[in-house]
Write a structure and sequence with these properties.
With 63 residues, this protein is mainly alpha-helical. It is 60% helix and 0% strand. Helix 1 packs antiparallel against helix 3. It is globular and about 30 Å long.
C-alpha cells in the first residue's frame, strides 16, 4: 500500500522530527518505546515496525 498526502513545510519538518525522535528512542533505550507509540509503529501488531535503517531511508524519501 502506498499513501500520498500533501503537507506544508512545517508539517513535513514535524514528521521528520517525530521520526528522528522515535529512532533515537529505539537506539537509546534498546528498542523500548512507550507501548502506545509502539502500537502505532506496528499498526497494532499487524506489521513489523521499521528498524533504524528503514527509518533513515524513509526520512530521506520524505526530505
Amino acid at each position: 500500500m502506498q499513501l500520498q498526502i500533501v503537507v506544508s513545510e512545517a508539517e513535513k519538518a514535524t514528521i521528520l522530527a517525530a521520526l528522528r525522535i522515535y529512532q533515537q528512542q529505539l537506539n537509546l533505550r534498546g528498542g523500548a518505546v512507550p507501548s502506545d507509540v509502539f502500537d502505532i509503529a506496528n499498526v497494532g501488531g499487524t506489521v513489523d515496525p521499521l528498524d533504524d535503517f528503514e527509518i533513515d531511508a524513509l526520512c530521506e524519501r520524505i526530505n
